[in-house]
Amino acid sequence: MVITKVISEEQYKQLIGAAGVSLVLFSAEWAEQCKQISDVMNELAKQEEFKAVQFLDVPAEDFAQVSLRHQIDSVPTVLFFRAGTAIDRIDGVDVGSLTQKAKKYASAPAPASSTGGSANLEERLKSLINRSKVMIFMKGDRNTPRCGFSKQLIAITNETGVEYDTFDILTDEEVRQGLKTFSNWPTYPQVYVNGELIGGLDIIKELLEGGELKETLNP
What we know:
There is one protein chain. The chain has helices at residues 9-16, 32-45, 64-69, 95-107, 116-129, 148-160, 173-183, 201-209, 213-217, and strands at residues 3-5, 21-27, 54-59, 77-82, 85-91, 134-138, 165-168, 190-193, 196-199. By secondary structure, the chain is of the alpha/beta class. It has two domains: 4-107, Glutaredoxin (3-Layer(aba) Sandwich), CATH 3.40.30.10; 119-217, Glutaredoxin (3-Layer(aba) Sandwich), CATH 3.40.30. Helix 6 packs parallel to helix 8. The N and C termini lie far apart (57 Å). Residues 5-98 form the Thioredoxin domain.
């Protein structure tokens, strides 16, 4: 098995939609770190235990819409798919994690199809949303935001003095993708109050400028 260089969005959809596990590297030629991850994936692809795994390389800048859809903020980023569904990701260079997760998903049997799967995810999302009166879904956590938008949101929220909890979407791809559909809100961070979506950073800034933020977060 070798790494397949994706050359069209149609090809991309067909490949990740195939049965089994796919490792997709979003890369850029100018980023030296991508070469490091590509070399590791090439070595994995040669090993017998990964013979059923697809290894794909997607030029992130050439596939802008695909990158936007998967919130690829930097390269390298590796997404793990099973039968078209994103199940995990690694942002940045983490060779140890890449190897560990590749082995994990290559050896794990595909979950049995079940009509209860989406219902179970919905119940889990509802539980997470209501874990705290004010719940923020973000990249990183309140102590270590991992993107500029999340960092700004935490700084603004801290100024209100309102108690809140956070969930790091980078640790759970199922929640990351599922919540976008559940809330019909395609980007992060997302802020919920009493189980209801308030919005993202732009909405929070508007509420702050209008003097309504603290009242909204603490009704």
